[in-house]
Amino acid sequence: MSDTIERIKCLIIGSGPAGYTAAIYASRADLKPVMYTGMQMGGQLTTTTEVDNFPGYPNGTDGTAMMEDLKNQAERFGTEVRFGLATAVNFSDEVGGIHKITIDGTKEIEAETVIITTGATAKYLGLESEERLKGGGVSACATCDGFFYRKQDVIVVGAGDTAAEEATYLANICNKVTMLVRKDHMRASKAMVHRVNTTKNIEVLYNSELDEVLGDNVVEGVRVVNNQTQNKHEIAVTGVFIAIGHTPNTDIFKGQLDMDDTGYLVTKGKSTKTNKPGVFAAGDVQDHEYRQAVTAAGTGCMAALDAERYLGSLE
Ligand SMILES: Cc1cc2nc3c(=O)[nH]c(=O)nc-3n(C[C@H](O)[C@H](O)[C@H](O)COP(=O)(O)OP(=O)(O)OC[C@H]3O[C@@H](n4cnc5c(N)ncnc54)[C@H](O)[C@@H]3O)c2cc1C
After folding, report:
1. What are the tens digits of pLDDT across the range 155-206?
2. Does the Cβ of 45 fall within 6 Å of ligand 1?
3. Is there a single domain that holds both residue 37 and residue 144?
4. What is the position in ligand 1's atom list of the atom closest to the CA of 103?
5. If pLDDT is split at 50, 70 and 90, which confidence band does 1 have?
6. How far apart are CA 220 and CA 235, in angstroms?
7. What positions carry a catalytic annotation?
8. Would you say residue 172 lies in a domain?
């Protein structure tokens, strides 16, 4: 049951690069956006120390510091940033209809437009050593962090298309890539398996699982277990890339918004429009292909422009 109701023009759900960029554009267009940050204020980049590939930072930057910059920029133009979680939604089917969003189970927001930027969460194996060494050599993003391991030996865990892509990407930069595949075959498409098998510096270990990441503060190696023989052996590496997939943060939108079969929100054509008029989606929540801060920011900009044009078309 809601204890307060507030009517606004534009609600932004999520505070990653997509959310803050949408906020910058929406507030400059006088949509007076209100943003709810979710539990991870600043989004996924706050879990990494070095961001080297976001344009405008010639010497790289710290993920948390970069997200603080984006927040300050959004607030400078009047975005109201609030800590809170969208817990339920009821989107209107009508053009010009009012969308209802419950925050933290109690407060109700009525919004003319909604920009969803709730991102996706990388899956990890759940090992204590993996958790401890995140940012110290354990990563879930080869495009983001591969460069830090150039000319070094790394491990990729996974057997699908993403793992195969990450392995071939890393093979161009690193000395050697060892792939750990749990089964006796890869799940990736034939074409990707062929690419892996014909890349000289990729070795695939089948029936193999990551038993432990070795190292105190930085990765020094891994212990691998063969799940058929239970034999264990160690491999010296400096980077461990976990490529077992992502989960889009879309549970609360189930039954309301169109999703693909893995739960990513579906947007129309080149726009950020969802199947509900006035509801837009940007960033990783609708993109399982690129998953980069700059692409998330780009679609965040698009979502704000789409929202502004939608409101303009109602006048
Ligand atoms: C370890 C790591 C390192 C990375 N390094 C780089 C890099 O160097 N360069 C690069 O370009 N990319 C990097 N990435 C990828 C990049 O972080 C993502 O592509 C980007 O953050 C996606 O932005 P987003 O705004 O779509 O969502 P996210 O950053 O995922 O943010 C989602 C936001 O939604 C909020 N949220 C979720 N559910 C709710 C809810 N119900 N209500 C309210 N809010 C909610 C969360 O709190 C969060 O604020 C890295 C990713 C990881 C995990």
Report:
1. 999 999 889 999 999 999 999 999 999 999 999 899 999 999 999 999 999 9
2. yes
3. no
4. 42
5. very low
6. 9
7. 141, 144-145
8. yes
* CB distance 61 to ligand 1 below 6 Å: no
Please report whether residue 1 resides in a domain. Answer: no
Residue ID of nearest Cα to ligand 1 atom 3: 48
- The CB of 301 under 6 Å from ligand 1? The reply is no
Q: What is the rounded end-to-end Cα distance, in angstroms, of the chain? A: 33
Using one digit for the tens of pLDDT, what is the confidence trace for 18-73? Answer: 999 999 999 999 999 999 999 999 999 998 778 999 999 999 999 999 999 999 99
Helix count (H) and strand count (E) of the chain?
7, 19
What is the CATH number for 75? 3.50.50.60
Instruction: Give the C-alpha distances (Å, rounded to integers) separating 256 from 88, 106, 288.
Output: 10, 20, 20
Q: Quote the domain boundaries for residue 303.
A: 6-121+246-314
Treating both helix axes as pointing N-terminal to C-terminal, what angle do 293-314 and 17-28 enclose, rounded to 10 degrees?
A: 40
Which residue of 144, 162, 244 sits with most ligand 1 atoms within 8 Å of its CB, as the best mutation to test the pocket?
144
